[in-house]
Amino acid sequence: MIDEQTFRRESDRALAHLKQSLIRAEDETDEPLFETEEKNGVLNVLFEDGSAKFVFTPNTPVAQIWISAISTSYKLDWDEAREVFAFPKTGETLRELTERLLREQINDHSVTLS
Questions:
Q1: In the chain, where are the structural domains located?
Q2: Which residues partner with 34 through β-bridges?
Q3: pLDDT tens, 35-59?
């Protein structure tokens, strides 16, 4: 298991990178579909139509990043070999899973996170 200090560093880095990717994706759409905001280390994606909210939370005691989206909770573990947080059930990285969930929520498969 990843130690607490490494978890904090890597989860902060992963969420900061994800936030920047989400902001770039926001800017690439013709009309605003969602807005990204961060409060106290928690990343939120708010959808303009008010239909949903995605919440990304680092959970230090269990060394996971938790995502609440589309009425489901996703718990991502640190994958030491790939040096990323990944969803064990599918192997998707934090970015890949978020991109898939965004596409499902807004029904637009052209949205990409870089």
A1: 4-106
A2: 47
A3: 999 999 999 999 988 889 999 999 9
Q: Which CATH number fits domain 4-106: 2.20.25.90, 3.40.50.300, 3.30.920.10, 3.90.180.10?
A: 3.30.920.10
Q: What is the pTM of this model?
A: 0.94
Query: What residues contact residue 69 under an 8 Å CB cut-off, 6+ apart?
Result: 52, 54, 55, 101, 105
pLDDT at 110: 87
CA–CA distance, 106 with 87 (Å, rounded to integer): 21
Average pLDDT, stretch 64-78? Answer: 97
For 65, list phi and psi in degrees, rounded to 5.
-100, 125
